[in-house]
UniProtKB/TrEMBL annotation, chain A:
Polar residues bias spans: 618-635
CDD domains: BTB_POZ_KCND1 (cd18417)
Source organism (scientific name): Hucho hucho
Subcellular localization: Membrane
Name of the protein this chain belongs to: A-type voltage-gated potassium channel KCND1
Parts of the chain that traverse the membrane: 183-204, 224-245, 257-279, 324-345, 351-373, 385-406
Gene Ontology CC entries for this record: dendritic spine; neuronal cell body; postsynaptic membrane; voltage-gated potassium channel complex
Record has Transport as a keyword: yes
Pfam families from the UniProt entry: BTB_2, DUF3399, Ion_trans, Shal-type
Gene Ontology terms for molecular function: A-type (transient outward) potassium channel activity
Family, as annotated: Belongs to the potassium channel family. D (Shal) (TC 1.A.1.2) subfamily. Kv4.1/KCND1 sub-subfamily.
Biological process terms in GO annotation: action potential; protein homooligomerization
Subunit and partners: Component of heteromultimeric potassium channels. Identified in potassium channel complexes containing KCND1, KCND2, KCND3, KCNIP1, KCNIP2, KCNIP3, KCNIP4, DPP6 and DPP10.
Keywords linked to the UniProt accession: Ion channel, Ion transport, Membrane, Potassium, Potassium channel, Potassium transport, Signal, Transmembrane, Transmembrane helix, Transport, Voltage-gated channel
UniProtKB/TrEMBL annotation, chain B:
Gene3D superfamilies: EF-hand
Predominant place of localization: membrane
Record's GO cellular component terms: voltage-gated potassium channel complex
UniProt family annotation: Belongs to the recoverin family.
Residues annotated as domain EF-hand: 101-136, 137-172, 185-220
PROSITE patterns (alphabetical): EF_HAND_1, EF_HAND_2
Organism name: Hucho hucho
Keyword RNA-binding: no
Keywords: Calcium, Cell membrane, Ion channel, Ion transport, Membrane, Metal-binding, Potassium, Potassium channel, Potassium transport, Repeat, Transport, Voltage-gated channel
Compartments, as annotated in UniProt: Cell membrane
Protein name (database record): Potassium voltage-gated channel interacting protein 2
Amino acid sequence: MAAGVATWMPFARAAAVGWLPLAQKTMPKPPVDKKSRSDEILFVNVSGLRFQTWKNTLDRYPDTLLGSSEKEFFYNEETQEYFFDRDPEMFRHILNFFRTGKLHYPRHECIQAFEEELAFYGIIPEIIGDCCMEEYRDRKKENQERLAEDTEAENAGDAPLPPDATLRERLWRAFENPHTSTMALVFYYVTGFFIAVSVIANVVETVPCRPIKGSIKDLPCGEKFSVAFSCLDTACVLIFSFEYLMRLYAAPSRCDFARSVMSVIDVVAILPFYIGLVMPENEEVSGAFVTLRVFRVFRIFKFSRHSQGLRILGCTLQACASELGFLLFSLTMAVIIFATVMFYAEKGTKGTTFSSIPASFWYTIVTMTTLGYGDMVPDSIAGKIFGSICSLSGVLVIALPVPVIVSNFARIYHQNQRADKMRAQQKVRQARIRMAKKGATNAFLQHKEDGGLQDGDSDSTPLCVKNRSAFEHQHHHLLHCLEKTTNHEFTDEVTYSEVCVTDSVGFRTSRSTSLSSQQGATTTCCSRRAKRRAFRLANSTVSVSRGSVQELDTLHITKTPAGTQYPQSRSSLNARTEDLKLNCADYTAAIISIPTPPANTPDESLPNSPAIPGILRNSRSSTYNTQETVKISSL
Amino acid sequence: MLSLDGLEMIAVLVVMGLFVKVLEQFGLFEVVGEEDSVEDDFELSTVCHRPEGLDKLQEQTKFTKKELQVLYRGFKNECPSGVVNEETFKTIYSKFFPQGDSGAYAHFLFEAFDTNKNGSVSFEDFVFGLSIILRGTINDRLNWAFNLYDLNKDGCITKEEMMDIMKSIYDMMGKYTYPCMQDEAPREHVESFFQKMDRNNDGVVTIDEFIESCQKDENIMQSMQLFDNVI
């Protein structure tokens, strides 16, 4: 039920007095409301901003958080108020909805933030009032488009293929994203070159060349150098056919590919040649043959794979199909009207060019588009008057749909630009996120170095360990538990690349087998952190679990294609095992946010992270050198 | 004079027409009959009504101060202008009965609440009505019900009036009822009502007949508990 109906309930029940005397049976007993009926003021504290409202106001919508008993979860006994740790500015709008029954969308707020608040308070966004619904819908659509673009850019983009991609998949990727491999780039440019050559050849072969000796007439170049041109044409067609067949083979869904616009263009580009091969050189069909040659010009559309601007134009025209249709329709109407009028107006004139209504069509179109060739001119007064009206109206009719098309084009163009910018910035963003993740691991490693994992009494733990927040303690404890579980330890990228040199070969799947065979090496490389011997427990079994860690790693990789790193960097390995252990979405957020607490504590902070590996490296390199002989022998 | 033939005449007329339109734009010609539109807009401004003081209302009705406050806050929230017109009344009532058509009954209710017959129900009208129904004696309630049924307020209920009322109540049920709604149901109900109420069989029910018959009816008396704790 909608707003405020609850207020009128007593009235509706009272109105039942009209049914009473007419009732043939006894009325049922009314429901007893045990709780107190008197209205009271409730205090709602939202992040410090105190709101007060009548209880009845909130009870109006019993299926929301505030209207139901769910709000009791947020009741604070000491302060006798309901406390919500949410945005107070947004809460204003939510409360206004309860008060007035209309939900308004604040224009300066982010649409996603607003939707989240609504979801929290149990209000569906569909009840936004008409005054704000339009704006809400537009913003939401825009946002969704943007997100779709972003995810598309991420997914379709430069994510490296899984190593076991088939030849087909690799081919397809090479075709769709030419900048992923040099071969694809070369192919891309070669096809572009040949398209250009083909189009230029088509153009040039009609240019008149100097005639061959002995004849006076100018020949078109196509006939003078017919062999050369036909060779060129054949070569181009062969290359295009080859390209098309390759694409067809590589396409993940051949039916969809065959129906796509680009493939149709490809087919139309090469078909005339083949039809020309098949057809005999007859007189009758030569007309058709000439027509086919016209279709060769469609090769120029193949450039749209190479040019984004062409694609945008195509998109725009598609998006503005209705406006274009309207333009066409209104033009047709106007043309017919004016042509008829002009014909009858000029009928009386001697030797008039307006011989029929269809003949007048030409005049009308030329006049309405303000071309005015002058091959058909009205003579009579009426004709001249109507002709001038025709030209004036032509300007108007054509000018009307144009702004719509232009604005659509601008919108699509900006979207594309944004997508490009996104892709460019994506690399930087990913790099920063990687750094943050690395910082998290380094925090843990530093923690271990500082002796945070000692079980000893609290006096001996260094001050820097004590200063850490409870959250950090718990997180580090968790990582420590993981280490104990898997009998492996976290290290950083540098150490790993220094130590486990043997596994620089190949992809992960190969590495797991190679590692498990080198039990001794792994044992020693981790035992080199000899300083922290206190917590160097079951190291002998390190290698076995390392294999399993690798497998876990492989499993997890497939889930996060975006921003994945190559396996050689151990920090990514760590990051991912962390992800695995704390496997819900909020924890991954926690991981990225972890660097900030370290930033606060002065002894270790994110900017120092390059230094930390340095420190570790130094310590390790010293021990490395001392135990180098041991390492080599075990290898 | 110029000898113009048909089409030229038309052309000239068209040109003149366009000319007139252009002059209109410049305000030199004004088509007659457009002066009234400006004033219509002012009528849309709402009439604001303020009720009498809380104390006075408390004297006149049987509600406590707190109850009046709650009622007024709800009322004012729904009708900021302080009065309810019939359309709003009908809309509100229809929200309670989504299956059927409650427009007719709401109209009768509106007539009953609008005691001073000015086309709108103010807060006082609303509260007086509610006070009688919810806090009044049984006789008061029956009086109010009689007033509701007596459409032309002439002191007696005719069969036609009762038929209208009955039909409006049955309309609220809507189409999907069990057992199926017969067309004759209202008429039969009216007949049985008149049999019960019309003592002297003169075809109309007066107020005394009505109250007397109702007081004798066990069902009706027992159903009066319907209004026990509505507010």
